[in-house]
């Protein structure tokens, strides 16, 4: 039996576009507006998980009551702050080239993000990706976001590709954990600011520096040049 | 011969005040103004090193010529951006309490930062530290900043305390590396956003979560309650 060809399921923020730190400070500003004190690095480590779990984390770390109304306000404050910070967001080195390479080789790929289409839209556009032609699964389309496996399972389904033969590519431990739940192998990238061993400890199959670095070593994950 | 009492030499940004991410995005904006493309996480990993070495890093990673004029412009752009971002900077959890505890116990401590007094001033003030009474060594006062050992050596000298009996407390690998050059033991804090094993691999003697966490375990580093 021949080995199945791989597909690639990409996280968006911190993996294809350089937006993690802007999201982090946007959350920090939103929390400060609500007089919720949380050190910035702790926000950084929670970015990429679902909004509901993020709220539970806030509750746990601050002992404040996080009502649905407060969470709505926080989301909207974060959105406004991110729109200000977002002007500095760019594709990560090699991201556009990597996606182009996969498309040219006929390797299936999709994007699966814990963000909503509203915030993810401009980032996806900056990559030159047309959501009408490329499967893009956003938070709006699944019940549970990362670290639950739903987003990656939905993305594989959209590609009509078995999840077991897919690589998930992500920058945060939430991507890696969700990939493992989904039974995909996870490739970690350093571009979100996690350390190499944080990604390895969460179960990354490989860790590369950037999309460019992954493209350079693409034959090591089953794509022949 | 009785064991010498410890002294504590603190880094400032990311160790006592929650300012690393604001510095990171301020540098990112400054670099974008000069059309220098560098992913944000790479800036994060270089924060805390001396400005001269930071410029060499830029040269190495981007292959652009970094003239003294360009470096001056970058510094001034960073300063302006940081003044905007800096309004969200707060002392880290437990920082004020830790310094107060050490003062009350008569344990000598000082601050040693790669920043200049101009940017460091407001952060120091937010900690309730009076530079007239507490030794504060800034970049302006030594020849080489971190990861060279000069800042910590100067801080120990200001305390008239042997550096070998001092703990350096910092959040970045540049603090840890400078501490080792200086022959001090280094305590790493996670508050700058480095992963635990990045700090351990650079040679940290211990790693704690925050100044509050260090205060809670202070008897493990030679200060009796």
Tell how many strands the DSSP assignment of chain A holds. 6
Number of helices of chain A: 10
How would you name the oligomeric state of the polypeptide chains in this document? homodimer
Strand content of chain A: 5-15%
Q: Structural class of the helices, strands and pairings of chain A?
A: alpha/beta
What would you report as the Rg of chain A, rounded to the nearest angstrom?
Answer: 17 Å
**Outline type of chain A:** globular
Strand order within the widest beta sheet of chain A: 3-2-1-4-5-6
End-to-end Cα distance of chain A: 22 Å
Order of helices and strands of chain A: EHHHHHEHEHEHEHEH
Largest interface: A-B, 29 and 29 residues
Describe this structure in words.
The first copy, chain A, has a 6-stranded parallel β-sheet, sandwiched between helices. Chain A has helices spanning 20-33, 40-46, 51-62, 68-85, 95-105, 117-126, 150-159, 173-182, 196-201, 211-216; strands at residues 7-10, 109-112, 136-137, 166-170, 185-189, 206-208. The first copy, chain A, has 225 residues and is α/β, with parallel strands linked by helices. Chains A and B meet through helix 1, helix 2 and helix 9 of A and helix 1, helix 2 and helix 9 of B.
Notable characteristics:
homodimer; 225 residues; alpha/beta; 6-stranded parallel β-sheet; 6 strands; 10% strand
What is the fold's blueprint, element by element?
Two copies of one chain form a homodimer.
Chain A: E1 7-10, H1 20-33, H2 40-46, H3 51-62, H4 68-85, H5 95-105, E2 109-112, H6 117-126, E3 136-137, H7 150-159, E4 166-170, H8 173-182, E5 185-189, H9 196-201, E6 206-208, H10 211-216
Parallel strand pairs in A: 1-2, 1-4, 2-3, 4-5, 5-6
């Amino acid at each position: 039996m021949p080995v199945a060809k791989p597909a690639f399921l990409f996280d968006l923020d911190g993996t294809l576009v350089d937006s993690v730190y802007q999201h982090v400070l946007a959350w920090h500003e939103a929390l400060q507006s609500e007089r919720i004190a949380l050190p910035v690095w702790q926000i950084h480590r929670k970015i990429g998980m679902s909004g509901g779990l993020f709220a539970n984390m806030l509750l746990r770390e601050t002992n404040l009551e996080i009502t649905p109304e407060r969470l709505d306000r926080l989301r909207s404050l974060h959105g406004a702050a991110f729109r200000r910070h977002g002007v500095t967001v760019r594709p990560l080195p090699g991201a556009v080239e990597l996606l182009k390479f996969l498309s040219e080789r006929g390797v299936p790929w999709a994007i699966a993000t814990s963000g909503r289409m509203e915030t993810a839209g401009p980032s996806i556009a900056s990559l030159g990706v047309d959501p009408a032609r490329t499967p893009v699964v956003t938070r709006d389309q699944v019940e549970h976001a990362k670290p639950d496996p739903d987003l990656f399972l939905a993305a594989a389904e959209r590609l009509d590709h078995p999840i077991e033969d897919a690589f998930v590519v992500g920058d945060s431990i939430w991507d890696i954990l969700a990939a493992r739940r989904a039974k995909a192998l996870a490739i970690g990238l350093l571009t979100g600011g996690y350390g190499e061993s944080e990604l390895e400890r969460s179960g990354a199959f490989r860790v590369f520096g950037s999309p460019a670095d992954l493209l350079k070593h693409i034959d090591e994950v089953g794509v022949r040049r």
